[in-house]
Amino acid sequence: MTRTFTTPRFQTAFDRVVEPLTLPGRLTSGAAPELTTVDQMVRGNAVIGRFIASPGLLGVKVRPTGRPVRVTAHFRYDSMSLEWWEDRITTPGVVRGAGAPRLLLVRAQGRIRGAALLIRPAADFRRAATGVVSFDLQPEELTAEGLFVLEMAGIDEDRPEWAPAVPAGSVGIMMYSIEFAEVEGDRELGLVSTGTLPLDPEDGTLTLRAGYFVANPADNDEPRRWIARATLVEPLVPGPRTKVAPVVEPVESRPKRSRGIKRKIKRRIRRAARWVVPVAAVPVAKRASRRAAALERRVVRAAKRRIHSRSAPPVSTPPPGPPPGPPPNPLADVMVDLVDRNRVQVELAGVEPGATPGVQVRARAGAEIEIVTDGPLRAPALIRLSIDPSVLRDLPGVDDKTVRWELVVHSEP
Amino acid sequence: MTDTPEFHLFCNTASEFWQRNLLPAGERVILVEAMSQDIRVTLRNLTFANALRRFLPARLVVFTGADDDWNEILWTFFDAEALATISRAYGAVDVIDIHDLVDSRIGDPGSGELRVAGKDLPVTGSGIDPAVLEEIVRATVSRVLKIPRVTDEIRAGAKYAEIAQRSAEFSNIYDALFAGLDPIALVTSHVDYNHWGLAVETATRFNVPTVHVQSTGTFKAYGLFPETRRGAATFRAELTHQIAEFFEQYVWANRDRLRSSAELTAWRLKGNWGKPSWWRGGAMSAIELQTPEDRLSVREHALARFGFDPDKPVVAVYNHAISDAPRTNVELFDDLAAWYEATAEYAVKRDDVNWLFIDHPNQGLYDATGFFDRLKEQHAGSPLVFLPSLKLSKNVMWSLVDLGITVRGSISNELPAFGIPAIQAGWSEWSHCGFTIVAQDADDYWAKLSESIDSLLDGRPLLTEEQIERARLWGWFYRSGADVSTQLVQHWEMGRTEHLLLSVRVAMQHVEADADPAFTAVRRMWTRKDPFLTRVDMRLPPEEFALALGGVSEL
Fold first, then answer.
1. What is the pLDDT of residue B68?
2. Which residues does chain A have within 8 Å of residue B274's beta carbon, measured at their own beta carbons?
3. CA B354 to CA B312: how far, in whole Å?
4. Which of A371-385, B56-70, B117-131, B176-190 has the highest mean pLDDT?
5. What digits encode the pLDDT tens for the residues A220-274?
6. Which B residues, 391 through 410, put their C-beta within 8 Å of a C-beta on chain A?
7. The CATH number of the domain covering residues in A25-193
8. pLDDT of residue A349
9. Which residues of A touch B418 (CB under 8 A)?
10. Are B368 and B454 in contact (CB under 8 A)?
């Protein structure tokens, strides 16, 4: 507990009496009375709010139960996040742009609880990237008189050079829900973060959007184990309807007000345009997320087709028919050899100074690797997977394809 | 705004309104200053003067103008013509450009006479004490050059010579005006620097009551009457005593009836309701922490941000705008920068506390020397934390500070109102109202600072319940008790807008003037020689006083 030197008197006779949030409970609005404190955050109504600085924090009155409390915070990096960030971070020369990663650290009750990587997809980039951090508070960490404090900051220092991210990454990030529940079993959400959450929760893999993933501490003191699968993918060639992240020019000075209006109009046009392709091309999907996933697959397929028949006119409606089966993976045959020859590298870097466990890699069938630490993770870490490009070039069937890593989430112990 | 049709409608209406709301003009005059670019300031000055003219027959003489220095450092749209138009609409018989007069007299030393309001006024020199003149010249040079102090080099320079010459001429002209026009009162928005300060200085020597109208709230004004002066060094120092006396006699004595009002003001102060609270705006401007435990929850995050030791208290030193009106208040150090530098030196040696040095939010307007950044650089190796004001949100600041230090900043009212002690290295309006630790001189400052830190470390509270209540009562008094709510000027936050002009025009055109608070309050202040305007008669018997407040005490 922090020492007290001066006891303040913030209370007045006119303060609102706040009824704390009870478990299980969920905070989903900036207007909720139990959200008593926001700092460097603008409250929302349909969402909790958006951060305007790094770090920013919020404080919630939560009624303690005397037992541990599981907290799960959901947040999002969307178009407005980008606008808010561009309006506020005008430092020249920094990493910026729609596709630039946000690497975020979440603290609560004074301690680091997790990190998250948010990257908006290069294809159909308008879709937001979603993140989640989940952690358990011990009974002594939550009091009836005090606050639950959640702080978010961009990870701006001590980042390895292979993990670029925009500075002050929390700026613009939208918090949309925080759940408070009794602890039941081990945590499953938020243990890894690869760029966004899967569109389909049943999909067992997470694509590493930046060649590395964030691993957060687990509940036990065991070494950690992850399985990743490498596939070769065609580089994305944008077609006329592929929505790709625009190149954002560095902002020299603070944008003028009129730019905001122009942007609003542009955004409206974009929003209207967004529905043209899906509505025309796809029968009503039962779940929006499935539809979006299918869309992304189609965009990639369309891009592939365009390589084979560049002179063909743009296809507005994809031909019906069964999707093609999985293509043969040239990496499947060589993964054991690559790992044996140390051509598959796994690097682990902590997000805060301090000891990090060592890490080993083993090959598995089907172009998969198993990554194992020699001790528990005490703090969030960044883990980069890479295959020596010089050996890739010599492999038959690689051509100009690049390696995409997918984390097989089921295998998390 | 002054080039809109609404401005002319406003002026026409004002002219009609005031012609029927004043006594016939007498022989004497009221001198009104119109040297701010913001029409809200001049509107207040003129309204005060006309409220006087409802019971004192007098003519209105307005002096206006600006020079290159002020146009460069502060004014962006100074429009003497618009100020003259509104002055005439409020009944001014003459509007003189005092800066022009100064310049033409310097250009032509032979011009001996001044013609104002139909009278020829001989200019025969000023009776000002040369030491006082020099003090005002130095303050003006500091402000104009945006420097903390006038060095020998600057004193030998052309700018100093120019300002000294112009200042002497200002004083000559003000003496001529006061000697020749026999004014009833001087109404001014500022009391510092040469063009304002020398008018106040002359008024004081000529025993003319001086009204200092405030650029905040709705209708706030301080007044200094010759009969109530006690010989303090400056206008502001005089007022500090009188305010404290009044506070003790009528505010503190009425605390039982005012408690509820003061609580409501404190609540609004936290939430940034009811300006002035220019410390910051927007999403970082509210104190939302409610309990001491709330504060600790945020504090552990805040301490970590700055690398502070959780086992040590946090002492915050609030920089002042370093060229802001030096020596007009009582200050314990040679200048504001000297105080700040010396405190940083002291801080380096006291490593049993965490030190947070916070710059003034408007420093850019007052410092061209990079003072704060230089000091930060100078202490780069030390654990002292230096922060631009707006890097710090209110919740985080309030979660950290265990003791605040300022010269005369409004933070020394806010901190004690919420239970956190404050040391003052100089006087302010409230410094004698008993809720801050006010040092007598520099030695006493170091002693009080050292004692206060020892008390923090030993867990001895530095602030009593009574002091918290006093601080909240001052908050009420500043924002409510001494702020007259009248439609004839509208609240400052209405902005410099056409809405303002429209609102005042509606008030003049459609609202009968009887019992307008501006009129009753000015008359009450004048009759009783109170040091300020009050919203209600603070001398009423308890029950009537509570009634006059509108029943807030029952909430």
1. 83
2. none
3. 6
4. B176-190
5. 888 999 998 888 887 765 555 555 554 444 444 444 445 555 666 666 555 544 4
6. 393, 395-396, 398, 401-403
7. 2.60.120.260
8. 92
9. 8-10
10. no
pLDDT of residue B17: 97
Q: How many residues does chain A have?
A: 413
Quick check: A329 and A322 in contact, CB under 8 A?
Answer: no
| Chain A residues whose beta carbon lies within 8 Å of the beta carbon of residue B403 | 6
* Residue A109 at interface with chain B, using a CB cutoff of 8 Å: yes
Q: Are both B5-123+172-220+484-513 and B250-480 of the same fold?
A: yes
Quote the tokens at residue B108: 């032509």
List of chain B residues whose C-beta atoms are within 8 Å of the C-beta of residue A110: 300-301, 304
Residues of A in contact with B298 (CB under 8 A): 37, 39, 57, 59, 147, 149
Which has the closest alpha carbon to B205: B308, B126, B130?
B126
CATH 3.40.50.1440 is right for the domain spanning B250-480: no
Average pLDDT of span B155-179: 95
Q: How far apart are CA B385 and CA B363, in angstroms?
A: 18
For every residue of B433-467, DSSP letters joined together read SSSSEE-SSHHHHHHHHHHHHHHHHHT--SS-HHH
CA A352 to chain centre: 19
Indicate whether A366 pLDDT > 70: yes
B462–A40 CB contact, under 8 Å? no
Choosing among 3.40.50, 2.60.40, 3.90.25, 1.10.10, the CATH entry for B5-123+172-220+484-513 is 3.40.50
Whether residues A151 and B301 touch (CB distance < 8 A) is answered with yes
* Average per-residue pLDDT for chain A: 80
CA distance B551 to A175: 43
Q: How many CB pairs under 8 A join A and B?
A: 130
Average confidence score pLDDT of chain B? 92
* Chain A residue closest in CA terms to B314: A5
Average pLDDT over residues A100-119: 94
For the ranges A56-65, A135-144, B276-285, which has the lowest average pLDDT? B276-285
Contacts of residue B221, Cβ cutoff 8 Å, sequence gap at least 6: B44, B48, B211, B212, B213, B214, B522, B525, B532, B533
**Domain spans of chain A?**
25-193, 257-308
Q: Which residue of B has its CA nearest to A42?
A: B283
pLDDT for the residue numbered B96: 94
Residue extents of the structural domains in chain B: 5-123+172-220+484-513, 250-480
- Whether A107 and chain B come into contact, CB under 8 Å, resolves to yes
* Lowest mean pLDDT segment, chosen from A198-212, B135-149, B297-311, B385-399: A198-212
CB-based contact, A116 to chain B, within 8 Å: no
